[in-house]
Amino acid sequence: MKKLFTLWAVCLLSMLTVVAQDAIFVENQEIVSPEVNADGTVTFRLVAPKAITAQVWGDFLPGGGGVADMKEENGVWTYTSEPLNAELYAYYFVVNGQAMLDPQNTYLYRNIANYYNYFIVSREKGDNGDLYTVHEVPHGDVDEVWYDSPTLGMQRRMLIYTPAGYDKGGKFPVLYLFHGAGGDEEAWIDFGRAAQIMDNLIAEGKAKPMIVVMPNGNMNAQAVAGKWSKGMYKPSFMQHTSDPAPTVSMEQSFPDIQKYLESHYNVIKNRKGRAVAGLSMGGGHTFAVSKEYPGNFDYIGLFSAAILYGINSNFMETNLQSLRADQKLSRQIDALKAAKPKLYWIGIGNTDFLYSQNKDYRTYLDEKQFPYEYYENDGGHIWVNWRKYLTIFAQKIFK
Hints:
Layout: H1 2-30, E1 35-36, E2 42-47, E3 54-58, E4 66-69, E5 71-73, E6 76-80, E7 87-95, E8 98-100, E9 108-111, E10 114-121, H2 128-131, E11 141-149, E12 154-162, E13 174-178, H3 187-190, H4 194-203, E14 211-215, H5 250-264, E15 274-279, H6 281-292, E16 299-303, H7 320-325, H8 327-339, E17 343-349, H9 355-367, E18 373-377, H10 383-394
Parallel strand pairs: 13-14, 13-15, 15-16, 16-17, 17-18
Antiparallel strand pairs: 1-2, 2-6, 3-4, 3-7, 5-6, 7-8, 7-10, 9-10, 11-12, 12-14
């Protein structure tokens, strides 16, 4: 009789557990967050009945990143944004002063050592949000490859996007695309939406089918954290300058990348089929690589570039005098000018903290009568801008 009672109790407990789980499941399904409304506003919701304060941090808020207070009713905290432009946006919650992800949103990405939720706003076909969304179009592939870098004395990992139709033969142009400080070879794929941008632009006939090479720009690292022999360390923003400090620059080791690509992929092996671009630190890499090899690329793109030059230069200072004083740089820029690249493109937001640095560089180019194309828009040093710059640049190259 005791065994029968025990079995009955276990069955009852199991039934109650299932009912409780179902209740939780249904309750969670009733909470939609984020909800993109028809007018372009976005509503965020968080179930936190014991919370004292709740906020949402988002790059859709003024300044490209800030917090807004949420309001509580019956244990559910909510915030509705102003109407947002078509774009991909990142956010997280701050509850009682502690950051947390939105438990109702399974879409997230990592930036250095932090995770963010994201959502996409699209108003109409062809806008930015639509471009960053996966559509029923022919899709390219993203290869994870390891290549030998004799210059750095190590094997290194990079991602390579090949367009739809690559396996059918032919030679393809190549865009070498560098990430920024704190990033890695996965940055342009994860939150740069490079694969979606290229798939959609190519499918619409707005960009030429091309290969996109995304190396790791941290010269002291083989790969993204957790995917090389150093183990599962915590990545940091300036780790590319220490632990140990790199002894070789991107421009010195770049030929190893190009050599691997041109020996393993079907590519056009001349300057007409080569482009190079990058954001922030990667813009600095683009600046350096293009002047080091002036006849190598027909298309060069600097996105919010960190053009740190001269002993008096840092992130917050202008560096025009350092640029003017450097005779080696003068010879390199003259050689690049003589090589006549088809496009030298500079893009930056008007509130970017590197704005004055880029302004000085443009003044320097103007003084040397170096032709370039300049694009300035609203916003700061954020992915919202860099995705736009890639979209614009990709439609200008290899035409």
